[in-house]
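User: Show me a protein chain along with its predicted structure.
Assistant: Here is one chain, sequence first, then structure tokens.
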Amino acid sequence: MDEILHPLVVSTPPLKGPVASPAPLDAEESATDLKAHRGSMSMATTQFEQAPAAAAAAASSSQAFRGRSKSVALGSYAWTLNSPRLPIDYAVTGTAVPYKARSWEPTLETAIKAIVSIKASHVRSFDTETSGGYTATGFIVDAKRGIILTNRHVVSPAPIVAQAVLTNYEEVDLEPVYRDPVHDFGFMRFDPTRIKFMELKEIKLSPERAKVGLDIRVVGNDAGEKLSILAGTLARLDRRAPEYGVGEYNDFNTFYLQAASGTSGGSSGSPVLDIDGHAVALNAGGASRASSSYYLPLDRVVRALKYIQTGDIVPRGTLQTEFEYLPYNEVRRLGLKAHIEEKVRNKFPDETGMLVVRSLLPKGPADGILVPGDIIIGCNGKMVPHFISLFAILDDAVGQEVTLTVSRGKKVQDVKVIVQDLHSITPNRFVEIGGGVVHELSYQLAKSYSQPTGGVYVATSGHMLASASAWRKSIIVSVNNIPTPDLDSFIEAMKTLADGARVPVRFYALHKAYKDKVMIMHVDRHWHKFRLAIRNDTNGLWEFTDMPPPPATIPYTPSTATFPPLDPSLALAQKLMPSFVAIDFYLPYLVDGMKATQFYGTGFIVSTNPPLIVCDRDTIPIGLGDIFITFANSIIIPGRLLFLHPFYNYVILTYDPSFIGDTPVKPLEFSEVELNQGDEINFIGIGNDHSIIMKKTTVSSVSNIGTRECSPPRWRAMNVEGIKIDDASNSQGGLITNDQGQVQALWVSYSSQNEKGKDISFMSGLLSSLVKPTIDKYLHSDKMVFKGLDAELWTMRIAAARTLGLSDAWVKKIEESGSTRHTLLYVLNILDERSPCAKVLNVGDVILSLDGKLVTRMSHMMLVHQKDTIDMVILRDGKELSVNVPMSEFSGYETTRVIGWQGALIQRPYKAVLEQVRNVPAGVYVSCTLYGSPASNVLRPGVWIVEVQGKPVKDLDSFLEVVHSHESEMSRRRRPSYIPPVQRTPEEQALLEKEQDALKPDDDEDDDDDNDEGYIRIKTVSRNETVRVVAVKLDLHYWDSWQLVRDDKSICGWTSENC
């Protein structure tokens, strides 16, 4: 089957990190044949959570029903049914010889002035839509009121921010005022007084003009072009509504028109024009592997427009039933009697079939009253041959009882059913909690999965629901054993939960509704807001109400656990198990180069007074997040980060020992003996299924740890040696010990990327001599200061060093030193071009000695961490040089503040970024942009913001100062003194033409000119020093400013606040 798509355009996406880790798509969800004619501006938006779909629908008002032409495929026989009607663009001469007389040029010239290009963003995921930007088309149907008609999948049920660009490139803000719950049309509104340089035109809606053979033009934003004109001929008026796939928006209960005009992404909402400039249909979708395009008839659109113009609600009724139009030969097979068929054919000679019930939803108004296969003969005593006639009755009977005459099998009977308000099962509110969005299940999705409407639907999981793996397209059944049949009960259940509590959540995925899951959720009330949003249809905005703060109760109570007895052969493991803990780490935001939001691994208790735990930086990669520590596989409590080691692959955590009661935990005992290749050791670890692994093995090598530069940049291990062991088992981590259980190395996970940029991890031993001095220093000192060399080193063979000019005297020194390795270290990379050592060392320098001691391996470099400066002898350009190299001071807590502004996460450039840039710009660093935000459309993660509105930005404070002063200036603006040309009197125009001089210098920045239309200018510099100036459309309603700052008093170590 041909793939059908909504007309929209794909432009180059900004690289954005998802806020939630989305669930993988099921094959049945991702395999869709149809797509909406709307082009996503962000391919990343659809990477995890499916792209929007669309297609659409409608039918006429209660005027006389027009005859429906059949497919042109009927061939010459079709002309025998009705006398042929010439297309409108032909004229007939006195000799009855038709000739093509009329030109499309004047028609298109006028129509183009009424057609607008729409650029919009879903600011939150909602219903079938995911957050992200897209482009489409619309056209003005009421110039006086500023009403634009476009598709429902463009207006969207989700909260959106949209602008229209007119043909003369004026831009106005749009308010979504109506989106039909089922059919693919909707209305947006703009302020006509904002148009300065053009007289507005409107296009008349004339559904009755649609005929087979009519010459048409589809005018709109096709495949991202601002204006394309595609020609076609209407071939069918009775096509079934296109289907865009399970879980997507689909139109039904309407006919569609079809023509071969080949529309594509971006042309959603384009008018289908006849030669008189009337819209005969609305472009909605198309086949991607053919040139067929599908248009929505305008019968029901005309009815809805009358209500919108008067400011009334458009009445829409539903039976939660899908009907289909079947030809007589198929209806006969369902039991239609001959005498009924005769009456229908006589009454409606142009019809070729009848309506039949295709499906209905459980618990809907028609459930148990209608059944699939029922043939619809009449409604309220009137025969209803097609969709238009049936829904003309239902839409005007909301809340009333109607009588349907149906033929079920051979039996004709009357059934009574109450018409439900269609708007009541179309959600108009959502809850934002823990970074996710939930709302009641809509009619659209309920029909897609044959579920009853209502129920709490996960539109995006966010930080909190992701912790329970309740991904998008899940239905939450209960929270903390409190049933949640609707949104209000979900809100009440969440109000009872304390921040940080761990509670069970019961839910199921829509595509596997038969299978409930129960998972543990970490309640988040400290990273994200908990608020309710309700749609205001007068201005199209969703208005937020903050929910009350969480209960002040502490969600953890002291508990005691014991360790299970092990087999006597595992005595060493039994001794060490009280030192093992399991660690889970959840990120609320993707900062510091992160691409994932959930991490887990093994930690080891190294002190009980004070309580200290060490784990690797593949388990806790950055300082921002929630840490949960599991003792004895029994007790889970929160942990707090003390510091991230800047060079070596470990972090130090602490916890509140009162929460684990008398649980028998023991600190590790470290061995003073250095491990060497060939040593026999014991390995005790934790398997991926939390089982205990123990075996005797041998050290196979002690070699350098090699990691690649990552994209996006993130911390990586360097200048360190790692232990490799024979036959390493798959494990989450473990210990390398001697026979007495003294620890010689920690078996930890290292993170890197391969040559294709894919994240990888590998296990290696971290020598205890790299860990113990830091722990001792922490136990005996208040302040931790890390000093080191801002350079990445690697080893070089003597042969290569000779080529670079190494003298025989140095070779002899190395050979006589007794070193087990005849290698030298050289500078592979300078990590920060601004650091003191960058002024002394160059890439390629070979290090011969440190403070007079020969250097042949990485472990000899530990000396640099204890001094402020160090004397080096280096080989550079064939010459030996003596240099004094100053050490750099490193932070034990890399990022201490993150700002959220217009959907961009902005921070000070962190250490890993600096190694990938030669000249570090002065400014603030954009580490991530959130889907659907103003920033995501124009800012790319990985750039520095160096100027805002022409004012330089040095740090986070100066950035906030500049943007907030601009925001307050915008809110203070008076009505502009500038009068647009279309609003001027002839006298004012004549006066201005005399005085006007566009070339005259004008340095007045403080006037009240609002020609910038709410945009703010930002200058950015990328890592490769590309400079760009972009304009961000400010949205202070959906995207306010906030910041996360370090706070040692809170459990997670951070506080979120407005800024």
